[in-house]
Amino acid sequence: xxxxxxxxxxxxxxxxxxxxxxxxxxxxxxxxxxxxxxxxxxxxxxxxxxxxxxxxxxxxxxxxxxxxxxxxxxxxxxxxxxxxxxxxxxxxxxxxxxxxxxxxxxxxxxxxxxxxxxxxxxxxxxxxxxxxxxxxxxxxxxxxxxxxxxxxxxxxxxxxxxxxxxxxxxxxxxxxxxxxxxxxxxxxxxxxxxxxxxxxxxxxxxxxxxxxxxxxxxxxxxxxxxxxxxxxxxxxxxxxxxxxxxxxxxxxxxxxxxxxxxxxxxxxxxxxxxxxxxxxxxxxxxxxxxxxxxxxxxxxxxxxxxxxxxxxxxxxxxxxxxxxxxxxxxxxxxxxxxxxxxxxxxxxxxxxxxxxxxxxxxxxxxxxxxxxxxxxxxxxxxxxxxxxxxxxxxxxxxxxxxxxxxxxxxxxxxxxxxxxxxxxxxxxxxxxxxxxxxxxxxxxxxxxxxxxxxxxxxxxxxxxxxxxxxxxxxxxxxxxxxxxxxxxxxxxxxxxxxxxxxxxxxxxxxxxxxxxxxxxxxxxxxxxxxxxxxxxx
Length: 537
What we know:
By secondary structure, the chain is an alpha/beta fold. It folds into two domains: 221 residues, Glycogen Phosphorylase B (Rossmann fold); 235 residues, Glycogen Phosphorylase B (Rossmann fold, 3-Layer(aba) Sandwich). The protein is 41% helix and 20% strand. Strands 1, 2, 3, 4, 5, 6, 7, 8, 11 and 12 form a ten-stranded mixed beta sheet that branches. Strands 13-16-15-14-17-18-19 form a seven-stranded mixed beta sheet, with helices on both faces.
């Protein structure tokens, strides 16, 4: 077999991409991968299901989408019930962030109903299957061979595994990186992955186990992990990556510590900047001084925004913001409940993104209404500019997640100079310098998820510190509650949490950092693929 000697041409497989179709962290993370790679001179092609975006005139214009006239395939999948299920697939080609963009679409009503569904994860299992089929047909039609395949989460993991095996059958050991941004626990019978449905042929191929590559059948590998997609793709990949050391350890605890030699951590990064945030603040409020921008938001701006929301801002001086999907794992209820442990002039803006969990949404509405005048709960996504405006104006940003592999919002907030208070779960502690431990370089705080009193106390003290930074009103420091904050003011009374945040992000979580990480990850994958190529049949 032939393995690439260098990595130049990258295929990025994903269900989300910021600027195309995205619900949050995954789309932003993949977009930043691509931006960093393009900036370093790599050739990147992004493959995605269309999610119906090619039907939007705004998307067609912005992404320069054009129908691929010479690509179209109609065939069938064989169901477990023995029936044939026909599909017809086509493609649109465009560009974004200096990379080529390929969107697979339906050419008939039944196929389009699935792969062109606007909601990214509706029909997710079927979208993933058709996406795999489309990629296979694309390779068969154009005979293109990349230098590396990088799949992101289970929805594109099956497609990545299929391509890896397909190329191996043609004599190519193409490096395959699988990034788990969020474990899915999706499990299916072998039939789902097989050539009858997603397209993976049950043929002898090379799989790395313990300390060497061995020949085995995909069905044997699949059945050995009881059809768990994440586990299967982890075994098939040359490198298993994630976005924090904590999350990699969690994954290894589930799938086996013996996978550790082929793991890699690619911390997420951000391209948010304080300069852009200042420009946004000035355009919306005519001011860039945080305390004045904050007062404008609290007094009139937030209550008047024309988005679906509940609650109100009353007699507020401090603004705390939290943002995320409306799901229990994001802990938005914790953000509202900690108001009971803070002074009455501290208010919270909850920027929620609905995902269909109506029960939890109704629970949040009840919590917000019980604290009317101190919380506004947004029940539809706000534009990213407004998210940046809220964070820039805030005294603090909180990430009270019950489960979080990394936490993009944490580094995005700090990039705008707003300290974060994160729960001590998952990869969140890796995104912040705890001021309780480092009184000179601290950027926020890490608190136990189940201690609402301590959470409220910490949020209030950091809000007071940033209010002092913004206004130079020393009288407010008498409201400090915690012993660590009182000790901090004795040791380092001139601490500038906001500047610390920006320095921390600039040093660890920028495009140049992730470009170096990706290059190292891809080289590791190339070496594993090289040894896979040397494994005799």
